[in-house]
Every structure is written in structure tokens, then in C-alpha cells.
Specification:
Elements: H1 3-9, H2 12-16, H3 24-38, H4 47-63, H5 66-78, E1 91-94, H6 104-111, E2 130-136, H7 138-143, E3 145-156, E4 172-173, E5 182-187, E6 190-195, E7 204-205, E8 218-229, E9 238-241, E10 257-263, E11 269-272, E12 275-283, H8 284-289, E13 291-296, E14 302-307, E15 316-319, E16 325-326, E17 329-330, E18 333-340, H9 347-366
Parallel strand pairs: 1-6, 2-10, 12-18
Antiparallel strand pairs: 3-8, 4-7, 5-6, 9-10, 11-12, 13-14, 15-18, 16-17
Length: 367
């Protein structure tokens, strides 16, 4: 199923819960709220939430980009009627008008026998979106950083600068379509324009292809992309780097690069949303009698936490405002107490504990 067919069937505005005339700011706000609610980390082992999160992400990928949103709105405006359904009478559809939407001509061309080669199209075409993975340390994910991502992908040909023609030559206008990039086809009462088979919809012919890219205008090569990782990002989060995807065709804009962040676990800390989690060992006597204990922080120093007498193993203690900052909201530090049980005792310690146990049993008996 093509992307356009999916656009016909899915109302991305409804997925995000916003009206069709919603501003870009409202769309982003709605996406962030839903993404937090249905994120897999907040809904472990919940397949329904995971699918909802995927739908939300797909909707924002389109509506969050101004160009793709315009294309989506145009496809939805045309609706299934663009396919010349029963009762529509004679209908004319120019595939060239929708080339920028990323391939509506492919769909109609296949239905009516026109067809076209993959990657060709009438007029400028937006480049494909790319996805890459970035591994970062836990502390860097909490604090944020700017780093370089190295990847191998399509890029504008360094020899011909994307023209596809050998150095010293230029593309020439297609004689079959006179540079239009489309030819007219009649199917009974249905007339439409299809990409020119002679030039592949480009409107020009490459008589002397570039030796590096073989006339495509793109080549595979290593490149470096700077990525700004916002503070507080979580494992599995996606960062959009606009314009750093695959190059466009026929003068079209490049796609976007989506960076999936993989956060390496920390040897001491973990997280639950904005809250920072840490487990601290304490002695048996400190738990029984109460004590001030040192708790490590991500900054490398420690803070003092007062335990009440009779603190139970596994109890959780909250330190306000010492968690992770996400979108200017700071979580808390949650300290879990692990009571350490001695593995060996001196005779004096054993005698003291037996005396304590005896006194405690007498108290329980009297009670």
C-alpha cells in the first residue's frame, strides 16, 4: 500500500485530536502530550499502547512537517473520487500536479497501465526520510549534548552536483514530452497525464551520464551529521533533523533524518520518566535506630538523607527536585533503601543480637 493510499484512509488530525486548521504549535503540543501518555516505557508489555504510539508518531511525521502536511491535505481533499469512481463521468487528473506528494502518479499509473520507474516523477520530488541509531551515555541523555553522527547514505553527487550529466555537458530537454515531463493518456471517459516514458517524468534527458552517479544525480557516501540531543531524552526517543535525509530529485527538497536514541544503562542510576532512581545500602543498625546516610547524585557529589528509626527494607524516600529535567519540568530523586544483613558475626555481636531477640520476644509475649 502506498503512502498516499494510507493518507486517504487515515485521518491524522483525528489521531492527534486536533482540528484540521490547528496551528503547528497546537499540533506539536498535542503530539507531545499523547507521546508521553502512550510511550512504550510508560506502558510496558502493552501492545495496544505501542500501536497507538506508532500511529501518533506516523501522524506527527506528516502533520509536523509543513510541506508534507500540505501534500497530505491535498490528497485528502481529492479523496477517492480522484480514482474516477462510478457516477463521476468524464474526469481529468494530472499526475504532474501531485508529483510532489511523493508518488500519487505511481498509484494511478499502475491502475491504468501507465506505470513509471521507481524514483522518477514529474517536477521536483522530496527526498526520502532516513533513520539512524545513536548510542549515548545515561548522563549525556539526562544533560543533553550535541554530537556527530556518521552514516553512509545517498547524497548529492559530488562530481555533477546532482545534475546527472558528465562534467562539461548538461541535460537536454526531452523531445517526446517537450520538457513537460508528462504525456496525455485517454482511457475512455477518463483522461489523465502520466509521466513521460522517454525521460521518466524528468522533462530532460541525460545524453552523457556522469561517471560517478551514472546519471542519477546521487551517490552513496559517508557523511557526518551534527545532532542536538535535548536534555532529558529517554531510550527509544526519535529526534528529527530536518533536511538531512536523502536528497530530493529534480530540484526537490531533501528528506529528513530521524535519529533513534539508544541510552546505555548506568551502573548506579536508572529512571522512571522524570524521576531519577537509586538504591542505597544501609546497615541493620542504621535502619533500626535511624541515621543520616549519604546518597550519590549524578553531579558526582552526595546529599544527606535522614532515615527514621525503624526504616523498612525496600522503602522508598523522595528527594524533591533532584531528578531529571524534561521540558523545564524537574522530577525527583527516589531513594530505595537496601538493608545489608551481615554474613558473619563476632561472638560479642552474636550475644548482643540474641539478647535483643530475647528481649523482643518477651515484649511480644507481654503485648
Amino acid at each position: 500500500m502506498t503512502a498516499q493510499r494510507e493518507w486517504f484512509e487515515k485521518d491524522y488530525y483525528a489521531v492527534l485530536g486536533v482540528p484540521q486548521n490547528a496551528s503547528a504549535k497546537d499540533i506539536t503540543k498535542a503530539y507531545r502530550k499523547l507521546a508521553r501518555q502512550f510511550h512504550p516505557d510508560a506502558n510496558p508489555n502493552n501492545a495496544s499502547a505501542e500501536e497507538r504510539f506508532k500511529d501518533i508518531s506516523a501522524a506527527y511525521d506528516v502533520l509536523g512537517d509543513e510541506g508534507r502536511r500540505r501534500e497530505y491535505d491535498e490528497v485528502r481533499r481529492l479523496g477517492p473520487g480522484a480514482f474516477g469512481g462510478p457516477g463521476n463521468g468524464s474526469f481529468r487528473f494530472d499526475m504532474g500536479d501531485m508529483a510532489g506528494a511523493g508518488g500519487i502518479g505511481d498509484l494511478l499509473g499502475q491502475m491504468f497501465g501507465g506505470g513509471r520507474r521507481a524514483g522518477s516523477g514529474v517536477g521536483p520530488q522530496r527526498g526520502s526520510d532516513l533513520e539512524a541509531s545513536l548510542s549515548i551515555d545515561f548522563v549525556d541523555a539526562v544533560r543533553g549534548l550535541t554530537t556527530s553522527l556518521h552514516l553512509t547514505s545517498e547524497a548529492v553527487c559530488s562530481t555533477c552536483s546532482g545534475s546527472g550529466a558528465r562534467t562539461g555537458t548538461s541535460p537536454v530537454r526531452c523531445s517526446q514530452c517537450a520538457g513537460r515531463g508528462v504525456t496525455d493518456i485517454n482511457q475512455g471517459g477518463f483522461a489523465f497525464s502520466a509521466p513521460c516514458a522517454n525521460c521518466g517524468g524528468r522533462g530532460v534527458k541525460i545524453e552523457h551520464p556522469c561517471g560517478t552517479c551514472r546519471g542519477t544525480g546521487v551517490e552513496m557516501r559517508n557523511r557526518e551529521v551534527n545532532v542536538r540531543v535535548p536534555a532529558g531524552i529517554d531510550d527509544g526517543s526519535r529526534i528529527r533533523v530536518k533536511g538531512r535525509g536523502a536528497p530530493g530529485r529534480n530540484g526537490g527538497p531533501p528528506g529528513d533524518l530521524f535519529v533513534v536514541c539508544r541510552v546505555n544503562p548506568h551502573r548506579v542510576f536508572s529512571r522512571d520518566g522524570r524521576n531519577l532512581l537509586v538504591r542505597v545500602p544501609v546497615s541493620f543498625t542504621a535502619a533500626v535506630l535511624g541515621a543520616d546516610i549519604a546518597v550519590p547524585t549524578l553531579e558526582g557529589d552526595s546529599i544527606m538523607l535522614r532515615l527514621r528509626a525503624g526504616t523498612q527494607p525496600g522503602s522508598r524516600h523522595r528527594v524533591k527536585g533532584r531528578g531529571i529535567e524534561v521540558n523545564k519540568s524537574v522530577g525527583d530523586l527516589i531513594v530505595t533503601v537496601d538493608v545489608v544483613v551481615p554474613t558473619s558475626l563476632t561472638d560479642e555481636q552474636r550475644t548482643a543480637l540474641l539478647a535483643f531477640d530475647s528481649a523482643n520476644q518477651g515484649k511480644e509475649h507481654n503485648a
